[in-house]
Amino acid sequence: MTKLSISNIDSVDKKAVGNGDSFEAQVGSFTSLFNMKGLGCSVVELAPGKKAWPYHLHYGQEELFVVLDGYGTIRFNDEKHAIKPGDIIFTPPGEGTAHQIINTSNENLKYLAFSTEENPELCYYPDSGKYGSYVKIDDGDMKVFLAHESNKVGYFDGED
Predict the structure, then answer these.
(1) Which of 13, 67, 85, 101 is buried most deeply by CB count within 10 Å?
(2) 0.85 exceeded by the pTM?
């Protein structure tokens, strides 16, 4: 018989992510806690003025955000939209879907982030012109490759 997995949003272990500057968040992963395979779920907490991740788009992954507490802004396809508790935001994959949640208020912002777990996944970061390739390995590790779009090489370059 399968055992029910249950936790509380306020008791999940959180870890700090970011660069210690404008990117700074506390993130608790239900994906790893429940050993989820096809669906990702995290709780994200942002202090005033902070962002968790750079402005980006996914080529395969869909994301859904549920604002729990606080106010902020979602930047989507270079437009900014105010967000508040109770808002549910869907970001599809593909060109023209770059997104980023920013805490533009003076209070903490807390939201749930759900995602499909595409593997491998490819992202693009329009502000910096980078691409990121992400591959989850069976042992839980992830292989990550980041490159600037100016580093293009030909398909057969360096091949014999």
Answers:
(1) 101
(2) yes
